[in-house]
Amino acid sequence: GTPFEGQEVGIDHEYSGVGTLGGPIVQDKAWFFGAIEYIDRSDFEEGFPFDSPGELALGDDDLFTFGKLTWQVAELDTLTGSLNYKRNYRHFDNASDTRNEDSTRDEESTATIGSVNYLKTFGNNLLWNSQVGYLAQRAEQISNGRSPAYQDRNTGFYTRGYGRDRGDNETRYNFLTDLTYLVDDRVGSHEIKAGFDAQFVRTDRYDEYLEGGEHSYAEVVGDVYRIRTRGETPYDVRFRIDFSRKVNYDFLGGYLQDTWRPTPQLTLNLGFRIDHQYGYLPPAGAGREKLVLRSPPADFFYDCLLYTSDAADESSRGGGGGGG
Fold first, then answer.
1. Within 10 Å of residue 264's Cβ, how many Cβ atoms?
2. What is the pTM of this model?
3. CA end-to-end distance (rounded Å), the chain
4. Rounded mean pLDDT of 56-74?
5. Which terminus of the chain is less hemmed in, N or C, by CB atoms within 10 Å?
């Protein structure tokens, strides 16, 4: 759509840079390669923040790095290690024309991936491959305003805070190994392979609700701003306690297969695989909490800053309390 006069939309700026470095460390024995890329960009969300005459640029930064080291242990034996890291940071995430700065969140996510691989050759027809891997992913959402989130029921405007912080973490450990045996003169050629792999996953998540409230809504009755109630209990208040959970998964598997080529024009793949997957939750109270939704306590008190649809620069204050 067409922006209102004086409003900024679209891209504010974007800068990027890339660098690479590689070459031998030891002649004919070891090599290194590395790369890095950084992207700094920002743009405007039309009408954000609603309580300011001008727009704020939303930041969105990316960092990517990669490194790889290869070592020729013997003529046919190779050891390779690699590491990959990426990070994304977004400022004023979830910005819109109904939010101010405090009611948005910043979000940061990172991922680290590493692996070590060893390939060894025995004679001319037996190969052994083994790999260890690691993956760590982290994501955090942090409210810019350190308060519950309040929304005016008439205008849809959010103020005070986003209402909660959240974190999601996942770590994976991987291991695999396999043997490959090559046969050329047994009723055609065969590539016989046997292998074993394992993966261990650990996850945890938390929600931290600021002052216990995620959202509350208001209405106007005459010239008075107030919270809707049922009796003495606030009606449109979602009150949560902090929440966290850890979940673990284990995967184990093995296989045996034969890629058989009885003739150059025919290939048969024979084999079987067995897998075991196991996921479990720690007992309640040992890394796991129930998600609870309940009414505010008797001493819960809030003081909302509300805006009317007629004049966004005028404000009134309302307060209330209740228990359940």
1. 8
2. 0.76
3. 46
4. 95
5. N
